[in-house]
Description:
With 106 residues, the chain is mostly helical. Helix content is 84%, strand content 0%. It has 4 helices and no strands. The protein has helices at residues 2-23, 28-52, 58-80, 87-105. The longest helix is centred in the middle third of the chain and has 25 residues, at 28-52. The protein starts with a helix and ends with a helix. The model has no long low-confidence stretch (mean pLDDT 95).
Amino acid sequence: xxxxxxxxxxxxxxxxxxxxxxxxxxxxxxxxxxxxxxxxxxxxxxxxxxxxxxxxxxxxxxxxxxxxxxxxxxxxxxxxxxxxxxxxxxxxxxxxxxxxxxxxxx
Length: 106
């Protein structure tokens, strides 16, 4: 169950990065609403991470959490913010995934 909680926490980490991206260039009510989304995602991500590490080793849980957040943020940047999906960006994203899987295996 705590692995599921950790995965959800990683998705919320991508969520707060997404909200930061949406806040760029905004002001007023729109900026405030995306800011509230950022704070909500940040809080949920941290609380769920804290819950997951009650039974999972921090040496595995933290890299998995940051990896999910990093990969999710790259995907959101490409899909939602039309950032270029360059070969080096994709290569290093897959390298990150392979590193986290390898860390879990050892």
